Amino acid sequence: MVTDAHIHLPWQEPDLDAKRDRLMAELDKNGVSSGVVIADSELESVIGSAAECAELFRGSDNIRVVAGISPLISFEGQLRLCRELLDCRDIAGLKVYTGHEDFYCTDSSLFPVYDLAAEYRVPVLFHTGWDNSHYASPERMKELAESRPQNTFVYCHCFYPDTEKCFEVLGDCGNVMFDTSSLADSEEHIPAIAESLEGAIERMPYRIMYGSDYGSCDMGAHIRFAEGLHLTDTQRRLFMWGNAARLYGIMQGRRPR
Length: 257
What we know:
The chain is an alpha/beta fold. GO terms for molecular function: hydrolase activity.
Protein backbone atom coordinates (compact mmCIF):
# COMPACT_ATOMS: atom_id res chain seq x y z
CA MET A 1 0.00 0.00 0.00
CA VAL A 2 1.08 3.56 -0.68
CA THR A 3 -0.21 6.78 0.85
CA ASP A 4 0.90 10.06 -0.71
CA ALA A 5 1.02 12.48 2.20
CA HIS A 6 1.33 15.62 0.07
CA ILE A 7 -0.70 16.18 -3.10
CA HIS A 8 -2.56 19.09 -4.68
CA LEU A 9 -5.32 19.29 -7.22
CA PRO A 10 -3.86 19.74 -10.72
CA TRP A 11 -4.08 23.36 -11.77
CA GLN A 12 -4.46 22.61 -15.49
CA GLU A 13 -8.06 21.35 -15.43
CA PRO A 14 -10.92 23.85 -15.88
CA ASP A 15 -13.22 22.80 -13.01
CA LEU A 16 -13.12 21.01 -9.68
CA ASP A 17 -14.64 17.75 -10.84
CA ALA A 18 -12.11 17.50 -13.66
CA LYS A 19 -9.29 18.27 -11.22
CA ARG A 20 -10.46 15.50 -8.90
CA ASP A 21 -10.80 13.01 -11.77
CA ARG A 22 -7.33 13.76 -13.09
CA LEU A 23 -5.84 13.42 -9.59
CA MET A 24 -7.57 10.09 -8.97
CA ALA A 25 -6.39 8.79 -12.35
CA GLU A 26 -2.82 9.76 -11.46
CA LEU A 27 -3.07 7.93 -8.14
CA ASP A 28 -4.36 4.82 -9.88
CA LYS A 29 -1.65 4.97 -12.54
CA ASN A 30 1.07 5.05 -9.88
CA GLY A 31 -0.43 2.45 -7.56
CA VAL A 32 -1.19 4.96 -4.80
CA SER A 33 -4.12 3.82 -2.68
CA SER A 34 -4.70 6.93 -0.54
CA GLY A 35 -3.55 10.49 -0.13
CA VAL A 36 -3.64 13.86 1.57
CA VAL A 37 -4.93 16.71 -0.60
CA ILE A 38 -3.62 20.09 0.54
CA ALA A 39 -5.74 23.13 -0.25
CA ASP A 40 -4.45 26.63 -0.94
CA SER A 41 -4.66 29.45 1.59
CA GLU A 42 -6.14 31.68 -1.09
CA LEU A 43 -9.93 31.94 -1.17
CA GLU A 44 -9.87 31.53 -4.96
CA SER A 45 -7.21 29.21 -6.31
CA VAL A 46 -6.48 26.91 -9.26
CA ILE A 47 -5.60 24.16 -6.74
CA GLY A 48 -8.77 24.66 -4.71
CA SER A 49 -9.60 26.51 -1.51
CA ALA A 50 -10.16 24.78 1.81
CA ALA A 51 -13.93 24.88 1.36
CA GLU A 52 -13.72 23.54 -2.20
CA CYS A 53 -11.37 20.67 -1.40
CA ALA A 54 -13.37 19.70 1.69
CA GLU A 55 -16.56 19.54 -0.37
CA LEU A 56 -14.89 17.67 -3.22
CA PHE A 57 -13.65 14.81 -1.01
CA ARG A 58 -16.36 14.76 1.66
CA GLY A 59 -17.20 11.18 2.61
CA SER A 60 -13.99 9.64 1.27
CA ASP A 61 -12.18 7.11 3.45
CA ASN A 62 -8.90 7.18 1.56
CA ILE A 63 -8.51 10.89 0.74
CA ARG A 64 -8.05 13.37 3.57
CA VAL A 65 -7.91 17.15 3.15
CA VAL A 66 -5.61 19.67 4.79
CA ALA A 67 -6.84 23.27 4.78
CA GLY A 68 -4.47 26.05 3.84
CA ILE A 69 -4.82 29.14 5.99
CA SER A 70 -3.11 32.53 6.04
CA PRO A 71 -3.02 35.30 8.67
CA LEU A 72 -2.92 37.73 5.73
CA ILE A 73 -6.20 36.68 4.07
CA SER A 74 -9.60 37.05 5.80
CA PHE A 75 -8.06 35.40 8.83
CA GLU A 76 -10.96 35.42 11.28
CA GLY A 77 -13.30 34.06 8.64
CA GLN A 78 -10.82 31.35 7.69
CA LEU A 79 -10.42 30.35 11.33
CA ARG A 80 -14.20 30.02 11.70
CA LEU A 81 -14.41 27.94 8.54
CA CYS A 82 -11.60 25.64 9.64
CA ARG A 83 -13.28 25.11 13.00
CA GLU A 84 -16.51 24.17 11.22
CA LEU A 85 -14.64 21.77 8.92
CA LEU A 86 -12.81 20.23 11.87
CA ASP A 87 -16.09 19.80 13.72
CA CYS A 88 -17.44 17.86 10.73
CA ARG A 89 -14.17 15.95 10.28
CA ASP A 90 -13.94 17.27 6.74
CA ILE A 91 -10.29 18.25 7.21
CA ALA A 92 -7.42 16.49 8.97
CA GLY A 93 -4.90 19.29 9.34
CA LEU A 94 -3.97 22.91 8.66
CA LYS A 95 -1.17 24.28 6.48
CA VAL A 96 0.59 27.64 6.51
CA TYR A 97 2.62 28.63 3.46
CA THR A 98 5.71 30.10 5.11
CA GLY A 99 8.00 31.47 2.40
CA HIS A 100 5.26 31.60 -0.19
CA GLU A 101 3.76 34.25 2.09
CA ASP A 102 5.57 36.84 4.16
CA PHE A 103 5.50 35.47 7.71
CA TYR A 104 7.74 33.30 9.88
CA CYS A 105 6.66 30.04 11.49
CA THR A 106 7.31 31.64 14.89
CA ASP A 107 5.14 34.74 14.23
CA SER A 108 2.55 35.33 16.92
CA SER A 109 -0.04 35.93 14.18
CA LEU A 110 -0.04 32.15 13.66
CA PHE A 111 -0.73 31.26 17.30
CA PRO A 112 -4.50 31.00 16.72
CA VAL A 113 -3.80 28.39 14.01
CA TYR A 114 -1.61 26.40 16.37
CA ASP A 115 -4.17 26.69 19.17
CA LEU A 116 -6.95 25.44 16.89
CA ALA A 117 -4.84 22.52 15.72
CA ALA A 118 -3.92 21.56 19.28
CA GLU A 119 -7.57 21.73 20.35
CA TYR A 120 -8.62 19.28 17.60
CA ARG A 121 -5.40 17.25 17.75
CA VAL A 122 -4.53 17.69 14.10
CA PRO A 123 -1.12 18.59 12.63
CA VAL A 124 0.04 21.92 11.27
CA LEU A 125 2.03 21.70 8.03
CA PHE A 126 4.67 24.15 6.79
CA HIS A 127 6.15 24.88 3.41
CA THR A 128 9.95 24.76 3.85
CA GLY A 129 13.14 25.02 1.83
CA TRP A 130 13.48 26.24 -1.74
CA ASP A 131 13.44 30.05 -1.99
CA ASN A 132 12.80 32.21 1.07
CA SER A 133 13.72 29.24 3.25
CA HIS A 134 14.46 31.41 6.29
CA TYR A 135 10.74 31.76 7.04
CA ALA A 136 10.63 28.19 8.36
CA SER A 137 14.30 27.33 8.82
CA PRO A 138 15.13 24.26 10.93
CA GLU A 139 16.32 26.52 13.73
CA ARG A 140 13.05 28.46 13.79
CA MET A 141 11.03 25.26 13.61
CA LYS A 142 13.01 23.82 16.53
CA GLU A 143 12.24 26.95 18.54
CA LEU A 144 8.55 26.63 17.70
CA ALA A 145 8.35 22.89 18.38
CA GLU A 146 10.04 23.19 21.76
CA SER A 147 7.75 26.05 22.78
CA ARG A 148 4.58 24.17 21.78
CA PRO A 149 4.81 20.51 22.82
CA GLN A 150 1.00 20.30 22.59
CA ASN A 151 1.22 20.58 18.79
CA THR A 152 2.27 18.16 16.09
CA PHE A 153 4.02 19.82 13.15
CA VAL A 154 4.81 18.51 9.66
CA TYR A 155 7.92 19.90 8.02
CA CYS A 156 7.04 19.54 4.33
CA HIS A 157 9.86 19.16 1.78
CA CYS A 158 12.45 18.54 4.55
CA PHE A 159 14.08 21.95 3.90
CA TYR A 160 14.85 20.95 0.29
CA PRO A 161 17.56 20.58 -0.84
CA ASP A 162 19.42 20.68 2.50
CA THR A 163 17.79 17.62 4.02
CA GLU A 164 20.87 16.80 6.08
CA LYS A 165 20.53 20.05 8.02
CA CYS A 166 16.80 19.47 8.43
CA PHE A 167 17.23 16.07 10.08
CA GLU A 168 20.26 17.13 12.13
CA VAL A 169 18.58 20.18 13.70
CA LEU A 170 15.10 18.69 14.15
CA GLY A 171 16.01 15.11 14.99
CA ASP A 172 15.38 15.61 18.72
CA CYS A 173 12.02 17.35 18.22
CA GLY A 174 9.64 14.44 18.68
CA ASN A 175 6.56 16.52 17.79
CA VAL A 176 7.91 17.33 14.30
CA MET A 177 7.18 14.93 11.45
CA PHE A 178 8.41 15.19 7.86
CA ASP A 179 6.99 14.54 4.42
CA THR A 180 9.30 13.97 1.48
CA SER A 181 7.34 15.93 -1.10
CA SER A 182 9.50 17.44 -3.87
CA LEU A 183 12.68 15.55 -2.86
CA ALA A 184 12.89 13.86 -6.26
CA ASP A 185 12.41 17.15 -8.09
CA SER A 186 15.99 17.36 -9.37
CA GLU A 187 18.27 14.49 -10.38
CA GLU A 188 21.26 16.55 -9.27
CA HIS A 189 20.32 16.36 -5.58
CA ILE A 190 18.90 12.83 -5.40
CA PRO A 191 22.05 10.90 -4.32
CA ALA A 192 22.77 13.15 -1.33
CA ILE A 193 19.09 13.39 -0.39
CA ALA A 194 18.63 9.61 -0.57
CA GLU A 195 21.61 9.04 1.72
CA SER A 196 20.43 11.55 4.32
CA LEU A 197 16.85 10.27 4.13
CA GLU A 198 17.85 6.64 4.62
CA GLY A 199 19.82 7.61 7.72
CA ALA A 200 16.95 9.69 9.08
CA ILE A 201 14.42 6.88 8.56
CA GLU A 202 16.72 4.49 10.40
CA ARG A 203 16.94 6.90 13.36
CA MET A 204 13.29 7.97 13.45
CA PRO A 205 11.17 5.50 11.45
CA TYR A 206 7.86 6.75 12.87
CA ARG A 207 8.30 10.38 11.85
CA ILE A 208 8.87 10.42 8.08
CA MET A 209 6.16 10.07 5.41
CA TYR A 210 6.30 9.57 1.67
CA GLY A 211 4.89 12.47 -0.37
CA SER A 212 5.21 13.68 -3.96
CA ASP A 213 3.90 17.26 -4.13
CA TYR A 214 1.85 16.19 -7.16
CA GLY A 215 0.41 19.22 -8.86
CA SER A 216 3.87 20.78 -8.81
CA CYS A 217 6.11 17.71 -9.08
CA ASP A 218 6.03 14.37 -10.88
CA MET A 219 4.34 11.59 -8.90
CA GLY A 220 5.99 8.79 -10.86
CA ALA A 221 9.48 10.20 -10.25
CA HIS A 222 8.80 10.28 -6.52
CA ILE A 223 7.52 6.70 -6.50
CA ARG A 224 10.69 5.57 -8.29
CA PHE A 225 12.82 7.57 -5.84
CA ALA A 226 11.07 5.94 -2.87
CA GLU A 227 11.39 2.46 -4.37
CA GLY A 228 15.14 2.99 -4.72
CA LEU A 229 15.70 3.74 -1.03
CA HIS A 230 17.49 1.06 0.99
CA LEU A 231 14.97 0.36 3.78
CA THR A 232 13.91 -2.61 5.84
CA ASP A 233 10.42 -3.98 5.28
CA THR A 234 9.19 -2.35 8.50
CA GLN A 235 10.77 0.98 7.64
CA ARG A 236 9.28 0.91 4.16
CA ARG A 237 5.81 0.07 5.44
CA LEU A 238 5.89 2.97 7.90
CA PHE A 239 7.37 5.39 5.37
CA MET A 240 5.12 4.50 2.45
CA TRP A 241 1.84 4.17 4.32
CA GLY A 242 1.74 3.62 8.06
CA ASN A 243 2.93 6.97 9.40
CA ALA A 244 0.62 9.04 7.21
CA ALA A 245 -2.33 6.75 7.86
CA ARG A 246 -1.82 7.14 11.60
CA LEU A 247 -1.33 10.90 11.52
CA TYR A 248 -4.22 11.73 9.19
CA GLY A 249 -6.65 8.95 10.15
CA ILE A 250 -6.69 7.41 6.67
CA MET A 251 -8.54 4.20 5.99
CA GLN A 252 -8.12 2.09 2.88
CA GLY A 253 -11.58 2.12 1.39
CA ARG A 254 -13.88 3.44 -1.23
CA ARG A 255 -13.04 6.13 -3.71
CA PRO A 256 -14.75 9.52 -3.31
CA ARG A 257 -18.02 10.04 -5.15
